Amino acid sequence: xxxxxxxxxxxxxxxxxxxxxxxxxxxxxxxxxxxxxxxxxxxxxxxxxxxxxxxxxxxxxxxxxxxxxxxxxxxxxxxxxxxxxxxxxxxxxxxxxxxxxxxxxxxxxxxxxxxxxxxxxx
Length: 122
Known about the structure:
One of its GO terms (molecular function) is DNA binding. This is Helix-turn-helix transcriptional regulator. InterPro entries: HTH_HxlR, WH-like_DNA-bd_sf, WH_DNA-bd_sf. Keywords: DNA-binding, Transcription, Transcription regulation. This protein is mostly helical. The chain has a domain at 31-108: Arc Repressor Mutant, subunit A, CATH 1.10.10. 51% of the residues lie in helices and 7% in strands. It is built from 5 helices and 2 strands; from the N terminus they run H-H-H-H-E-E-H. It has helices spanning 20-28, 33-42, 47-53, 59-71, 86-108; strands spanning 75-78, 81-84. A two-stranded antiparallel ribbon has the order 1-2. The longest helix is centred in the last third of the chain and has 23 residues, at 86-108. The termini are far apart.
């Protein structure tokens, strides 16, 4: 059985007391969690579509992460598929400045952040 999702008030990685920020960082630091939230911020998605949008991540990892994100009320599912809840949208809004920062950071490192990885240009 998969480990349960981090929750404030319960011991989590980095905090025996489960301080809310540490619980959030534990949840968001799990493999693929941020990518799932980011993709769902663009549009709701069914399981297979979300898997494709996440570069064909394994179905077992996607299933575990979706269970964690729905269990923590950041994601919900209905007839349209998986989508962000209001707290999920607020979280994406809170981390949106990180995307702008990452583009500036890539520029400072001399990288073209918009160039696809498989570009034929060396």
